[in-house]
Amino acid sequence: MNFNQLVYEAVKKIPRGKVASYGDIARAVGNPRASRQVGWALHSNPYFGEVPCHRVVFKDGSLAKGFAFGGEGVQRAMLEGEGIAFGSDGKIDMIKFRWVQE
Q: Is 66 designated active site?
């Protein structure tokens, strides 16, 4: 399995109502220094709707400006639709909503 496929498989595990950081996914696929590459893999995700790439955010809970499937507003709406709340600073509370792998 290539790097992108590993990323897609890891992201599929993030449950509804939870998020992970790019670094979380990089660590999950065994390459903790590859968070930028995770971003590139998700930006070119050919499985939209199957791989919930909207659930991957920056480690501080902020959203990427260039969400590949409609921009930051679409990503935020998708996350809010899953019950994820944003603070007044526009960020997700990563303590409350971060997915921790079992």
A: no
> Which is the catalytic residue, given 26, 41, 42, 53?
53
Instruction: Report yes or no on 102 lying in a domain.
Output: no
**Parent domain of 25:** 3-97
> What total of structural domains would you count in the chain?
1
**Has residue 45 been placed in a domain?**
yes
pLDDT digits over 27-86, tens only? 999 999 999 999 999 988 888 889 999 999 999 999 988 765 677 788 999 999 999 999
Q: How far is CA 34 from CA 12, 48, 78, 81, in A?
A: 18, 21, 25, 29
